[in-house]
TrEMBL record:
Catalyzes the aldol cleavage of 4-hydroxy-4-methyl-2-oxoglutarate (HMG) into 2 molecules of pyruvate. Also contains a secondary oxaloacetate (OAA) decarboxylase activity due to the common pyruvate enolate transition state formed following C-C bond cleavage in the retro-aldol and decarboxylation reactions. Belongs to the class II aldolase/RraA-like family. Its EC number is 4.1.1.112, 4.1.3.17. It catalyses: oxaloacetate + H(+) = pyruvate + CO2; 4-hydroxy-4-methyl-2-oxoglutarate = 2 pyruvate. It comes from Leucobacter chromiisoli. Homotrimer. Substrate binds at residues 116-119, 138. This is Putative 4-hydroxy-4-methyl-2-oxoglutarate aldolase.
Amino acid sequence: MSAKTAAESRDGVCFSLDAETRVKLERVGSANVANVLLGHGFRNIMMPGLKPLNGSQRQLVGPAYTLRFIPAREDIDSMGDYSRDDNLHRIAIEQCPSGAVLVVDAFGCLGGASMGDMMAARLVHRGVAGAVTDGGFRDIDAIAQTGLPCYQREAAPAATPIRMHPIALNEPIGCAGVAVYPGDVLVGDGDGVAVIPRELVTEVAEAALAAVEYEQFAAREIARGRSILGLFPATPESRVEYDEWVAAGRPEQH
């Protein structure tokens, strides 16, 4: 990543994006990111089966702060244990850095909630960018009202300790079959959630934005009746056309 402003770090991992990179990623989609990463040889970076909690929620962008669950065990997990101040689930809510995304490895479990509305409200107050789980959340309508961008498989209304035990914070995890390392950057939209390896974030953001801007030109041409052949994906010839269009001030863009 490039230089950070007001960077927060834990265990040597930075959890802040510089403003320019964040703005670029907010202008692109998860599919654009996936295409760019495919060019780098990454094929398993989209989290299959995860859906936005709310269709109108804003774009999700932020570095990953991770929480991992394992199956609950009756002699350890109870509501009494859950209420303790050293419970890692609750600690994650208080430690996830501002601007970061809480990424929950729930081992695909829908028998207990990865988060409820009180936790979501606390994340919003602390400036967290969003939450992602390969399980599910509870209090769906109330979470949506907080405005926190969230992604899940489907709702999981049961109490967390019925099925899940929090075991680790800020370590590499698997979420929906995708490896997520602390500080990797997530981009989520209506298509799903993509994970960008943290070392490639600046490069991917630039390339994805360039692709989006070329698509604006291609969409203009298609709307005028042009074939996609020789236009999309871009060819050396269409790139020359695009560069000329940009140099002319992007006429008839709207």
